Amino acid sequence: MSGARVRYRSRPKPGDLPSLRRLVAATQVFYAAERKIAAELLEERLRRGAKSGYSFFFAERAGRLVGYCAWGKVPLTRQSYDLYWIAVAPDAQGQGIGQHLMGLVERAVARRGGGGLYIETSSRRVYARTRRFYRDAGYRLVARLPDFYAPGDHKAVFCKTLAP
User: Fold this and answer.
1) Over 90: is that where the pLDDT of 4 sits?
2) Over the stretch 70-107, which tens digit does the pLDDT of each residue have?
3) Which of 44, 66, 117, 142 could cysteine-pair with 159, CB 3.0–4.6 Å?
4) Edge-to-edge strand ranges of the sheet holding 115-122
């Protein structure tokens, strides 16, 4: 399966919802409430289209969702964007899928005039690999909010400025 070609697309479809739920659960990183929010963003996009403010990229291999990301413009800003979610199936990690998804978002932001792409994440140990992924992609830690999510669980905010 890892030798099969990965296809990327930006247009969500209703069948993505159960696939997305399975994918975020398979990572064993997100709490149940977080997994619910991931699905809600996609539901909102399916219901309202581009007016939802949420954009997606999906990575599929042999018809199976192996990665995705959700992103969008930060309301009331001129050139700031958030990467809300990025996840890759455990059996597909380390194959460049996350890097490719991140590159798709960065190019899309650049086409829209560039600006800051912000990513918020937790300081929990389970997110150490995620934080390293962001640093390796050229993002720098711009804020750390102590005890934001819970005592000892700080919010880490990463940013990369993208040229148009």
Assistant:
1) no
2) 999 999 999 999 999 999 999 999 999 999 999 999 99
3) 142
4) 6-9, 55-61, 64-73, 80-88, 115-122, 153-162, 140-150
The three-state (H, E, C) secondary structure of the chain, written as one string: CCCCCEEEECCCCCCHHHHHHHHHHHCCCCCHHHHHHHHHHHHHHHHHHHHHCCEEEEEEECCEEEEEEEEEECCCCCCEEEEEEEEECHHHCCCCHHHHHHHHHHHHHHHCCCEEEEEEEECCHHHHHHHHHHHHCCCEEEEEEEEEEECCEEEEEEEEEECC
Whether residue 135 is predicted with pLDDT greater than 60 in this model: the reply is: yes
Structure tokens at 45: 């996009």
Residue 48 and residue 54: Cα distance in Å, rounded?
A: 10
Rounded to whole angstroms, the Cα distance separating 23 from 6 reads 16
Query: Ramachandran region of residue 84, left (φ > 0), alpha (ψ -120 to 50) or beta?
Result: alpha
Q: Which among 129, 81, 90 is positioned nearest to 109, based on CA atoms? A: 81
